[in-house]
Amino acid sequence: MELKGIHHVSSITAVAKNNYDFYTNFLGMRLVKKSVNQDDTSMYHLFYADEVGRPGTDLTFFEIIRAGHTYEGNNSISLTSLRVANDEALTYWKKRFEKYEVEHGEIEEQFGRNVLFFKDPEGQRLMLVSDEKNKGVAAGTPWAKSPVPQDKGITGLGPVKLTVPEPEPTVKVLTDIMGFTYVGSYPAYVEGQPDVQVFETGEGGTGAEVHLEHRTDLPKERPGRGSVHHVAFRVDNEEELAAWRDKIRAARMPNSGLVDRYYFKSLYFRERNGILFELATDGPGFATDEDVEHLGETVALPPFLEDKREAIEAKLMPLDTTK
After folding, report:
1. Can you tell me which residues the record assigns to a coiled coil (predicted)?
2. What are the sequence ranges of the domains in the chain?
3. Tell me: the pLDDT tens digits for 184-212?
4. Most CB within 10 Å of its CB: which of 72, 108, 142, 151?
């Protein structure tokens, strides 16, 4: 009953084609699955990850066409970070951001590591974090066929930041229910605001942290394109996931029960500040229905949607992901 780290982060895009171009051709991540939102099959669900889609490397996007602007604020997953191998990789990325005019900051230190903030074209709040001094959850392996040199590539998901107006309920869920441990803090980026608290689970390190930002000066976030929908944490197997379900029920927290996503099993619940958490099993994985060499090239549907394929594909804008 110990969460192993971050499993995936799911966000919103308004244009799947542009999203695919940025995350594969610019960031160099591999599209390991082109599927649909199983709860609304009219929209794409794109999964970007390392070479084979290992748990903990997976950044996903729901395409909500005509999604509006995100008005940043409280009650949100306000930052997604991506791991790179070392400080030298951060220098490479800063130059790449400058060359292609991607909005970014300067390389700076955060919680004893070097980091680099940037945004995607839709305003998704992102950060690269160097693993040069990192110990903890192992990173993934960047795809060898990526346009980015493999030694500079993105190796997985780093810490997620939650921004809340009242930290106590979220801390209670993280520590008392989910088993996270408080490991320290660092100064807020906004003068006069409380320090950002850091919690870790499992083996710890950049692949297993949640950073909790307490903001007293913000309205509630209005999500849209470029916002995060939920964050998922790794569970070893379905038996353990069932035990987590029972624990969350015992705490009287409303939850989804076990949900079969085919590539993994899931459990969803929302804490009092409105943050949507998911627990997801490590397997069976993205190679379940596609050859590893051809992941993400066609629309993949779980067996329970296969008989609706013709109708589903008719609603989707064509998206060439074979290149």
Report:
1. none
2. 10-315
3. 999 999 999 999 999 999 999 999 999 99
4. 142
pLDDT, tens only, 80-121: 999 999 999 999 999 999 999 999 999 999 999 999 999 999
Superfamily of domain 10-315: 2,3-Dihydroxybiphenyl 1,2-Dioxygenase, domain 1 (3.10.180.10)
Handedness of CA 275, 194, 108, 129 (dihedral sign): negative
Give the angle 82-123-111 at the CA atoms, nearest 5°: 40
Residue 170 to residue 174: CA distance in whole angstroms: 6
**Is the full-model pTM beyond 0.85?**
yes
pLDDT of 323 reads 76
Cα–Cα distance for residue pair 194/20, rounded to 1 Å: 37
**Hey, what amino acid is at 50?**
D
- 177: Cβ contacts below 8 Å, ≥ 6 apart: 247, 248, 251, 253
Residue 304 pLDDT grade (very low, low, confident, very high; cuts 50, 70, 90): very high
Q: Alpha-carbon distance 47 to 56, whole Å? A: 12
Q: Kindly report the backbone phi and psi dihedral angles of residue 259, in degrees, each rounded to the nearest multiple of 5, phi listed first.
A: -120, 130
Using the structure block, give the residue that is written with the tokens 């997985």: 156
Q: Which position has the token pair 């949507």?
A: 276
